[in-house]
Write a structure and sequence with these properties.
Helices cover 0% and strands 45% of the residues. By secondary structure, it is an all-beta fold. It has one domain: Immunoglobulin-like. The strands form 2 sheets. Strands 2-4-8-7-6 form a 5-stranded antiparallel beta sheet, with no helix packed on it. Strand 6 and strand 7 form a beta hairpin.
Length: 155
């Protein structure tokens, strides 16, 4: 018997914050912006995981060095898994640094890694892809599931 598809709309919003920690004579500064990881419809009966991507763009000036870019846990208690919510319902997902989705992008704790790019050129945009994945076969209710992640650039 074929089961009907239960689409679940998933939008992952990413809120950005910048933590400023410059004390050099030439004041360093960085800005970051994002495009959301939006998963679209999730099929609870589908065998493959649902993948999507977003981007994080950063730009620094004043000779900012030793950058570390982290992503928060969002509404989750842990990085693995992160969870999205729809009211009281939750769905597991995660965000990764690599296309193979094997390195969780976090803050360097709990088995995660931050992004530590080479010292950027002044006033040049750099774009990093955020790779997202919802594991297959989650029995969740239909609805819009969301989470808010904070991205932080330390320098």
């Amino acid at each position: 018997m074929n089961q009907p598809s239960r689409p679940i709309v998933v939008v992952l919003g990413v809120i950005v914050a910048a933590l400023l920690s410059a004390t050099r004579a030439e004041a360093a500064s960085c800005t970051i912006s994002t495009t959301a990881v939006s998963f679209g419809a999730y099929d609870v009966f589908g065998a493959p995981a649902t993948d999507s991507t977003g981007t994080l763009t950063y730009r620094c000036s004043g000779s900012a060095t030793n950058l570390v870019i982290t992503l928060s846990k969002g509404s989750s208690a842990t990085f693995n898994p992160r969870t999205m919510t729809n009211g009281t319902d939750t769905m597991s997902y995660n965000l990764y640094r690599n296309a193979a989705r094997s390195v969780i992008w976090g803050d360097g704790t709990g088995g995660t890694q931050s992004v530590q790019p080479a010292n950027p050129n002044n006033n040049q945009n750099y774009v990093r892809t955020i790779y997202g994945r919802i594991p297959a076969s989650q029995d969740v209710s239909a609805g819009a599931y969301t989470d808010t992640i904070t991205a932080i650039v330390n320098y």
